[in-house]
Amino acid sequence: MKQSDFKQHLDGIHDIADRLARPVKIMEVCGTHTVAVCRSGLRSLLPSSLKLLSGPGCPVCVTPAEYIDRAILLSRRPEVLLATFGDLMRVPGFSLGTLEKERASGARVRVVYSVSDALALADERKSAKVIFLAVGFETTAPGIAWAVKTAAERGMKNFAILSALKTMPNAMEALLQSGGVQIDGFICPGHVSTIIGSRPYEFICRKYCRPCVVAGFEPADVVAAIAMLLGQIEEGKCEVQNQYLRAVSAGGNPKAGLLLEEIFEPADAEWRGLGVVPQSGLRLRDKYKNYDAFSLYPDIKAPAGAEVSGCLCGEVLRGRIAPPECKLFGKKCTPTTPVGACMVSGEGACAAYYRYAPLAEAGGGDESPSFFKRR
C-alpha cells in the first residue's frame, strides 16, 4: 500500500468517527494483529472515540491451565518424551508449575519448531512414546492432521498428540454471547482465514449484526480494515469483507479443509477466559484414537486448581480490560517473571503491551496508565 493510500484510509477513519459522534470498539481477534498494532503505535493515530480491543487470538494464551498440568503429569511417565512449541514451556498450570521447571527436574521435554520435527523424533527414538502438544488454531491444525495421518500410514506406534486445537469463529460468537464488553466489529485473523476462508464469519453478521473484515498484518492492512469496518458501521451494514485478498479467498484452502475433516471432528473445548465453548475444539476421530494421548492415558487427571490470585488474563482475552489495567502487569508479572499466559507468549496481549510500552496504549481516548509514565 502506498503512503498516500495509508493517509487516505486514516483520514477516512477520522472523518467517519466525527460523523458517528459516538464511541466505537473494534476487536482485533488475532494475537499477531495485536502485536502489529502495538509495535506500530497505531492507536496514537486513531480518533479518541475509536478503541481497539485485543481478543482471544493467541493459541498459547487460551490454552487452559488444566491442559498444562496434564502435560506435566505425562512428562513424568518414564516412557514419555514430550515435544512442544517453545512458548508453552513457561505457561503455568494450576498447581504443578511449568514444563520448563519440569524439564529442569529431569523430565524428557523437547522443544520443536514444527510437528514434523516431533514425527522425526518419534522415528529416531523408537523406545520412547513421543507425545506432541498440539496447541493452535486452524492455521497449525492441517500440519498436525498430516502428521497423524502419516504416522498411521507408516504404522507408527510411538507417536501421539495431546490436542488443544481450537477453531476461531465459535469463540467470536462466545464473546458476543457473554456480554460485558461492547464489540462493534471484528478484524478477523488473517492466518486462520487462509485456511478456512472468509465465509465462516458470515453467521456473525447475520445472527449478531456485527461487520467483519479479514485483514493482513502490516499496519497499512489494519488501517484499511478499520476504515472498511467503520464504513459498514456508518452505513448500517453487516457483511464480511476481505482486505487480505492477496492471501485469503472466500472458500479458503480446500485441501487443508478436507484433511482436517478426515482426521478431526468438532468438540466442545475449554478456553482460558471464555470457559467451555461448544464445538470450538478439534479432537481426533475414532479411526485415529491410537494417536490420541487423552485416550491412551485416561488415568492422567490434573488436580483441581485456580488461577493465580490477581491475574486478569481471562479479562484481557475477553477484551474487557487492557493489560495495564491488571494490577500485576509490569510489577509481579513481566516477560521474565510471567504470572499469566498472556505475558508468556510472543503473541500475548500483555507481552505486546509490555514490550512496546508507550506506543501500545497511546491514543484511543484513554489516559496513559501510570505504568507507562514510570518507564
Molecular structure report:
The protein is globular and about 65 Å long. Strand 5, helix 7 and strand 6 (159-165) form a beta-alpha-beta unit. It starts with a helix and ends with a helix. It has helices at residues 3-20, 31-40, 59-62, 65-75, 99-104, 115-124, 141-154, 168-178, 190-196, 202-208, 219-235, 254-263, 293-296, 313-317, 341-344, 349-355, 357-361, 370-374; strands at residues 24-30, 50-57, 80-84, 109-111, 129-136, 159-165, 185-188, 212-214, 240-242, 264-271, 275-284. Helices cover 41% and strands 18% of the residues. Residues 363-375 have low confidence and may be disordered. The strands form 3 sheets. It has a 5-stranded parallel beta sheet with strand order 2-1-7-8-9. The chain has a 4-stranded parallel beta sheet with strand order 4-3-5-6, sandwiched between helices. Strands 10-11 form a two-stranded antiparallel ribbon. The protein has a domain at 61-167 and 253-296: Rossmann fold (3-Layer(aba) Sandwich). With 375 residues, the protein is α/β, with parallel strands linked by helices. The longest helix is centred in the first third of the chain and has 18 residues, at 3-20.
